[in-house]
């Protein structure tokens, strides 16, 4: 089995989910669903489904948004070197971006398989 973490974002009922290539397979002409990842705001237990849901949670943790680079959604903390850079289009928000947020906010977010 491949150890690739790339995948395809699938949108269903307004929810974006990552289907990883390494976990997907063809079986008798029908695709078998792979693992999907979701970013969860740990205190509330809610899945983050948009930047409109993510931004207030990051601001509450002291992150400020940069508005100078429209192709990116960027946040920084005063007095720190940390920077969170996300694609402007939430459809391109991947597990790599999720884990970046988790590493910089360990108590507030986690990534789960859904």
Description of the molecule:
It is a single chain. The protein is 18% helix and 39% strand. It contains two helices and ten strands; from the N terminus they run ββββββαβββαβ. Strand 7 and strand 8 (72-77) form a beta hairpin. It is globular and about 40 Å long.
| Rg, alpha carbons | 15 Å
Termini separation (Å)?
20 Å
Low-confidence stretches: 22-32
Strand content: 35-45%
Please give the count of helices: 2
Mean pLDDT: 82
What characterizes the major β-sheet? 3 strands, antiparallel
The helix fraction, in percent, is 10-25%
Q: Overall 3D geometry?
A: globular
Order of helices and strands: EEEEEEHEEEHE
Helix and strand composition category: alpha+beta
Query: Using DSSP, what is the number of strands?
Result: 10
- Spatial strand order of the main sheet: 6-5-10
């Amino acid at each position: 089995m491949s150890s690739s973490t790339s995948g395809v974002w699938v949108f269903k009922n307004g929810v974006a989910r990552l289907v990883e290539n390494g976990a997907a397979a063809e079986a008798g002409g029908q695709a078998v669903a792979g693992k999907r990842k979701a970013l969860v705001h740990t205190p509330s237990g809610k899945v983050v489904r948009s930047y409109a849901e993510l931004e207030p949670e990051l601001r509450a943790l002291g992150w400020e948004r940069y508005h100078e680079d429209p192709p990116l959604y960027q946040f920084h903390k005063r007095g720190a070197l940390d920077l969170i850079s996300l694609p402007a289009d939430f459809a391109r928000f991947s597990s790599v971006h999720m884990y970046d947020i988790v590493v910089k906010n360990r108590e507030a977010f986690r990534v789960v398989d859904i």
